[in-house]
Each structure stands twice: as C-alpha cells, then as structure tokens.
Amino acid sequence: MPDPATYRPAPGTIPEAPGVYRFSDPTGRVIYVGKAKSLRQRLNSYFADLAGLHPRTRQMVTTAGHVEWTVVGTEVEALQLEYNWIKEYDPRFNVRYRDDKTYPVLAMTLNEEFPRLHVYRGPRRRGVRYFGPYAHAWAIRETLDLLLRVFPARTCSAGVFKRHGQIGRPCLLGYIDKCSAPCVGRVTAEEHRGIVDDFAEFLSGRTDRMVRELERRMQQASEELEFEKAARLRDDVGALKRAMERQAVVLGDGTDADVVAFAQDELEAAVQVFHVRGGRVRGQRGWVIDKTDETPDTVALVERFVTQFYGEQAALADQADDASQPVPKEILVPELPPEHEALQDWLGDLRGSRVSLRVPHRGDKRALAETVERNAKEAFTQHKLRRAGDLTARSAALQEIQDALGLDQAPLRIECIDVSHVQGTNVVASLVVFEDGLAKKSDYRRFEIREGAEGGDVASVAEVVRRRFRRYLSETTPDEADDAESAAKVRTGIDPTTGRPRKFAYAPNLLVVDGGQPQVEAAADVLAELGIQDVALCGLAKRLEEVWLPGDPDPVILSRTSEGLYLLQRLRDEAHRFAITYHRQRRSQGMVASELDAVPGLGPARRQALLKHFGSMKKIRAAEASEIAGLPGFGQRTAEAVVAALHPSTEATP
C-alpha cells in the first residue's frame, strides 16, 4: 500500500490558482479526478493525517502513487476539463451516474429513405432522433397507437418493409390506415418524410399549432360537404387531444426544464430527473449510485450530477446528430453549489443560449420539485428493499461480517443498541433484532434509561446491555424447584407454563452498539461482569463507518462496496429510527414538563398552559411569579410554588 508521503509534492510547488488534478496508481492508471479554486489548499488536504481523513478518501490516497494537476484560467474551463478527464479515464473513485436500468426511448431513423418509428434501448447512433426517455416501453407503444392514425408513419423493421414491397401488398397497419404504406408506393419518400416531420414536431411540444391546423382542415372539409373526410379529421383531433392528456400538464407557462432531486445515505444516493417540455412531463429517469468518493452532502451531488449528466447528453446529441436540445432552459435543483454561476456559463455553452440553474421556492415548480423528491425517496427505498431481500446478498453480508470480525460462525442473529436523548436529558434506548439478515420486529425492545442517564451514552449503553442480558440469564436459568423436564425447557428458552419461547431467552451471535471504542469497551465490561462469553461484540461509528472491536486500538475498515457493511449500517439505522420514534412519543406525552411534575396543585392542563404560553422550560425558569400568576387559572400561591420548584435555592419573587 503506497504511503502518501512518498509522492506528496514539495512544499510551495503547488500553485494557488484554480485547476484540475488527478491521482494515479503506481501503474499509471488514473483513479480520481477533481477540480479546485485553489489547487494548493485542496491538494494539501489530501496529505493531512490519515486518521483524520474520510475512509473513502483515505483509501484513495493510499491507493494512489502519483498526483498531477493542470492550471486553468476560469472555473468554466475547470468544469470542462474535469468532465473531459472523467470521461476519458473513467476513474474508479469518482461518482458514476449510470442508469439502474435501460430506459426506452422513441427512435426516429432520419438517416433512412423512409424513416421508421420504433421503441429503442441502447447507445445513441448518428442520424437517429430520439424522444424520451420514458419510464415504460408500453407508454411509448400507447402513444404510437394513438398518433399513428394522425401521422401514419412506418413502424416496421427493414425485413418486413422489404418483404411487403416484394409481394406488393401492405401489412395490416396499412389496411387499417395506421401506416401510409410507403413499401407499396402509396406515398412518395418526400410525402412520408413530411409525415414523420409532423410527428416529430408534435412530440417536440408544438401541439397547439397541429391541433389548430387539423381543426381548420376539418372545418374546410365540412364547408365543402366532404363529411367523411371531416369525420376522419375530427377523430384525428380527438386522438391528438387524448395523447396530450396522457402527459400530465404540470406547468401552465410552457416551461422547458429538468427537475432534479436526491435521496441518500452514507454509501449510496438515488437521483430522479423529470424532463418537462412545453409544460408537460415528457420523461423520467432515475439512478442509484455508489458514493465512491467523499461527497456527503447534496450540494456536492448536484455539482457532480449536472457536470456529468449534461456533458454526456451533449456528447450523445453530437454523436447521434440529434436536433433536440441536450440541455433545457432551466434546471431546478434542491440546493445550489457555490460555483453555480460557472456551472450556468458552462451549461449555456452546451446549449448555445442562457441556462438558469436555480432552486424553486414557491408555486407549481416547488410542488413539482417535492413530487420528484418523493419519487427519489421511493426509488431509494425500493432499491434498498431489493438489495435486502436478495438471499445471495444477505448470505454474502453475513459471511463478510464473520470474516472481518473473526467469528467462529456467521452471525445469524444480530442485535443492535442505540441511545437517543436531547442534550443528555430524557434518555431512551432501543434494541432491534435481525435474523438471517432481515428485521424481526416482534423482538424489538425499548428502554427508558434509569441509572446511566447522568453518565452519557457510554453509561446508557452499559445499562441497556446489563438489563438485556440479566433478563437473558434469568430466562435461561432454571429455579431450584423446577423438575428435570421443566429445567431442560428453561435452558432452551421455552416457558414451561405456556410452552412458548421467551423473548429474551435467545442470545445474539453478535451484539452491535452505535458508537466507537468507549461504547464497545463499556458493553464488553458488562458482558464480562455477567460471565457471558459466547456473544461477539462490535461497535459501528457513524461518522467514519468504522467497526470497533473490544480491546483493539484500531478499527476494522470494511470495503465501501461490502455487503457486510451495508447490513451493519442498515441495522444501525433501524435502531436509530426505533429509538427516535420512542423518544418523540415520550416527548409528545409531556416528557419535557417533568420538572413541573413535583409542583403541588399543578395538573397536566396547567403544565400544558405554561408550556404553551412561554414556549420552553428556559423561559418558564426566567419568568417571575407575577407573570405566571397573570395566566388564566393560576393564582399567586401556585405561581410562587412553580418558581420555588424551578429555583429551590431562592425565594419566590412576590
């Protein structure tokens, strides 16, 4: 493993100018590309103490063997160069926005004599125009089915087209007037291309003009007493309007925008994009990405996404000779990066006109942004559920945990403890259980911390471990009065009276605590005190995702792509959710008013009135007796009792 000190540039040799840098491994392969306003400040941060670096950054700098940089004149040039290098080198430590599935598009083969319309998945090709992407292929086929009666363009493959030209008869679509049958010469190549151009114009958003033109022709045919032609045109207008209704109108001003939203955790992020053209949602796209470098916040994700996605769209449009714009007029994002003006200039160069990058704060655009955010969260949840439900992935996760922690067997039952409080007060804790990598919610438990609240998280963890395993010992140790059969049942965790398993009678194979070395050592001391030796123990520190073992001064670092780390993280997050839920429940039941419980004559209604009037316990403590006595339902004596209870060492102020 290379030592970053061996390739660190000499002091003072790194320029302070803006630029783009790249780290390479000892074989010369580029593994990371980044940009910075000040190259010296950014690069020096990579060569700080390894213990203080983010785990992914630490892995990158210890994998690299060389760093080099290029100075540029402006931030726009830095964006362009960074994108080009990422595209050229495909660095393993950069975030990669790859589709989690191949989205279908409607392809229009303008490079053929008789252009064809068809559903397509795959790389872009020159001379083909694309519309979409769509969420489902059936959405394209339904749209085509409606519009082919108005725009009877060719949809058949080259083989079918050639065969019907040879036999001199059109296919079924030609007989039912959903194809103009250029294969048998019903229309010329120029007439067929005109049909295709009208179809493309309609899909590009110029719908109103097309409908008005058909209505004008319908009225003209009616005036000329060509009622059959007028009826066909009437049906065509109806088909166009139904096709327009299938695309939800979300913005009334003909907005041309992309709306972007994210959902993320420490290791992965989900991205959703809604493509709005002409005020209607024309397409939707989503990704789930690995956060392979240190990009913990939404701002960094926005910057990386905008740079890579729209740079790629512009490149695809150039390769395919696509007439559509690769970049919309507006890009609506959840947060603006610090260098958003440079991003706007770069996007404007790609589009050929001004592009607005902004955060919607009100109105229809804000409502649409919230919808996209909900879709991102839903996609992320579904991704995690698919991953959690994969038996192979769960088996691999348990095996990785066994190997990393040096366990004798895979931890089929894992329990995790998390503590929740508000600035050290009103402390509660949770214990969640996973069996075979899946949550077993019937075994979840909640704890109200009694003795360890004053000692912080460490003492609270120790109390929960002590209470949980004392219960385990009590439920698996038979009484002296038990007969042999009952004693055997008790030892196996069965209640001899009911014949049902006892909840705390099964010890976990692995106990996980939310925290680092202090919490782990406290839990280990309690297990040793109780004489329990067959339960493995570890701690998961949230900030750096390090796994701590008792008695080990250094943490265990699991791979970022490790299924084992993913399972431990999901277990920790579930314990945190369960603890927070319990804490909020108790808080809603008046937990914050506990200091007022001892005031004689002060019931729940008047405690609630005090909190509602003053807003917090801090303001109640600062209030004088006269202020409290002025509230409805309070008298001077009750007010003095409240002040005396909150300030026991002082006399109540009259």
Automatic annotation (TrEMBL):
Belongs to the UvrC family. This is UvrABC system protein C. It comes from Pseudonocardia ailaonensis. Residues 16-95 form the GIY-YIG domain. Residues 208-243 form the UVR domain. The lineage of its organism: Bacteria, Bacillati, Actinomycetota, Actinomycetes, Pseudonocardiales. SMART domains: GIYc, HhH1. NCBIfam families: PRK00558.1-5 (NF001824), uvrC (TIGR00194). CDD domains: GIY-YIG_UvrC_Cho (cd10434). PANTHER family: UVRABC SYSTEM PROTEIN C, UVRC/OXIDOREDUCTASE. The gene is uvrC. Keywords: Coiled coil, Cytoplasm, DNA damage, DNA excision, DNA repair, Excision nuclease, SOS response.
